[in-house]
Amino acid sequence: QVQLVESGGGLVQAGDSLRLSCTATIRAFQSYTMAWFRQIPGKEREFVAVVSRGGGTSYADSVKGRFTCSRDSAKNTVYLQMNSLKREDTGVYYCAAGPGGYGAYDYWGRGTQVTVSS
User: Fold this and answer.
1) SS3 string of the chain?
2) 90 close to 12: Cβ distance less than 8 angstroms
């Protein structure tokens, strides 16, 4: 059974940093594209970042230059390093996994809350 478990969320001040982790119980982790999404109350879930099977990355414009997505296949874990956090980064952050390329995700975690205060 596939499980994705996010951790590392919390309450921080604007300008601070956080690192989110997502550990996957999944066979052949290295064959999955891994992504981060977030959801703010009242809004639709939105794409944040993705790391491909080969390690290539892509980011939403709103986080480019501040967030870094990476993966450690030895630990079945994907990370989201978030620097220079802003209030508008507040939301529930979800990890997702897909066996193909960008944009198609079969598995989702339950999310971790990130709250940025001014």
Assistant:
1) CCEEEEECCEEEECCCCEEEEEEEECCCHHHCEEEEEEECCCCCCEEEEEECCCCCEEECCCCCCCEEEEEECCCCEEEEEECCCCHHHCEEEEEEEECCCCCCCCEECCCEEEEEEC
2) no
Q: Are 5 and 22 in contact (CB under 8 A)?
A: yes
Model pLDDT for residues 5-54, shown as the tens digit of each residue: 999 999 999 999 999 999 999 889 999 999 999 998 889 999 999 999 99
Compute φ and ψ for 79, nearest 5 degrees.
Answer: -120, 155
What confidence tier does 100 reach under pLDDT thresholds 50, 70, 90?
confident
Q: Are 80 and 36 in contact (CB under 8 A)?
A: yes
The amino acid present at 108, given as its one-letter code, is W
